[in-house]
Design brief:
By secondary structure, this protein is mainly α. 84% of the residues lie in helices and 0% in strands.
Length: 174
């Protein structure tokens, strides 16, 4: 009885992951549809808030000019990290969704990675038509790196959880 409800729950989670993957793709598309100016305002604001919060937490006592200088310095890194994170999340959602079909973990990972990398390439193509934006091969590589990192980290977490469950199960049997 418990196994059946567990399987049903996993099936629901996998369907939900598929739905969330489509929603997440729409969110990525919406971010990519922002003009260069709109996108810069978002990343500059985020960078400034990060520096300001960090400075406050560590009692750095920085003035506004110093905060803005540091924020400007890290903005590129923040922007590219955000790209990697967006695509890591997408690859994880696709990986979970692909669990609906019987296939090995590595095959699921490869398909999730490939699909995410293709979506990353299409996203960069889309940016060619957005004012002030450019589709770059380097950004496809950054997006793909995020996708690969996301799926690998998630697979490692799944393996750790499986290992812990097996250990707990063995202790109960003893």
């Amino acid at each position: 009885m418990k196994k059946t409800s567990e399987k049903q729950m996993m099936k629901i989670i996998r369907y939900l992951a598929g739905i969330l993957a489509v929603v997440w793709m729409c969110i990525i598309f919406a971010f990519s549809a922002q003009s260069n100016e709109e996108s810069s305002v978002v990343s500059e604001s985020l960078s400034y808030r990060m520096v300001s919060s960090t400075g406050h937490f560590f009692h750095w006592n920085l003035n506004d000019e110093q905060l803005r200088e540091i924020a400007d310095t890290i903005e590129y890194f923040v922007r590219k990290t955000a790209h990697m994170t967006e695509f890591a999340i997408l690859s994880i959602l696709l990986f979970v969704w692909l669990g609906l079909w019987e296939m090995g973990m590595w095959r699921r990972a490869a398909i999730a990675f490939a699909a995410t990398a293709v979506y990353g390439a299409s996203d960069e193509f889309h940016q060619l038509f957005v004012p002030g934006r450019a589709g770059r091969v380097s950004d496809v590589m950054i997006d793909s790196t995020g996708a690969l990192a996301g799926v690998i980290i998630f697979m490692l977490l799944v393996k750790v959880v499986q290992l812990l469950r097996r250990r707990r199960s063995r202790k109960r049997q003893q």
